[in-house]
Design brief:
Blueprint (H helix, E strand, L loop, with lengths): L1 H24 L13 E4 L1 H7 L1 H40 L2 H4 L1 H55 L3 E4 L13 H11 L8
Parallel strand pairs: 1-2
Length: about 190
């Protein structure tokens, strides 16, 4: 009987040790603290609509797009004018009597089309590059200010409202952030 009792105690002890190993393998849950995390949020759409730097960059983008559209229209008119001129010459049989004129006009037309495409491509690339630079400057400005603002106010986090499902409006600091950003922003004179 002693052997049987000893086996039972040994089995219970081994089983008990196995349970402890499983318990030790589980990751420890973080301890809850009574300290409250200070979280606020900003409505990015409102921020972009009211931050003067964002408004200036938007205005600059619209101006660049308008300039591009005007250049595209001008180039199209130049090409159309050349096509009309060539059709008139063709009706008058100028090209039939002077093949060198036909070759010269064709070369002039191809150069005008290539120049127009290059000019418009360069403008498009410049617009894209400028937009990227403006976006980066805008993000840097906002991020730098947010760090300063959060530290001054004692906030642990400032979230983007668009990235959350629900936040009570009492945590909205958009107006304060916009005021602070606009206070720091000095409009740079346009280059001539």
């Amino acid at each position: 009987m002693n052997k049987l009792l000893m086996m039972a105690v040994l089995t219970v002890t081994v089983a008990s040790c196995g349970d402890q190993k499983q318990e030790a393998a589980k990751p420890a849950m973080p301890k809850q603290t009574s300290e409250e995390t200070a979280i606020r949020y900003v409505d990015a759409d409102t921020l972009m609509a009211r931050y003067n730097l964002a408004k200036d960059f938007n205005e600059a983008g619209i101006t660049m797009q308008n300039n591009y559209d005007a250049a595209q229209k001008t180039q199209s008119q130049v090409i159309q004018s050349m096509e009309n001129e060539f059709q008139a010459k063709e009706k008058k049989n100028v090209y039939a009597t002077d093949p060198t004129q036909a070759k010269a006009d064709q070369a002039r037309y191809q150069k005008a089309v290539a120049d127009a495409q290059k000019k418009l491509n360069d403008m498009q690339m410049n617009m894209t590059k400028q937009a990227q630079q403006n976006n980066q400057q805008l993000l840097d400005s906002i991020n730098n200010y947010m760090k300063i603002y959060a530290k001054e106010k004692g906030y642990d986090m400032i979230l983007n409202k668009a990235a959350t499902f629900y936040i009570d409006s009492k945590y909205d600091v958009t107006d304060e952030v916009v005021k602070g950003l606009n206070k720091r922003y000095t409009k740079v004179a346009k280059k001539k």
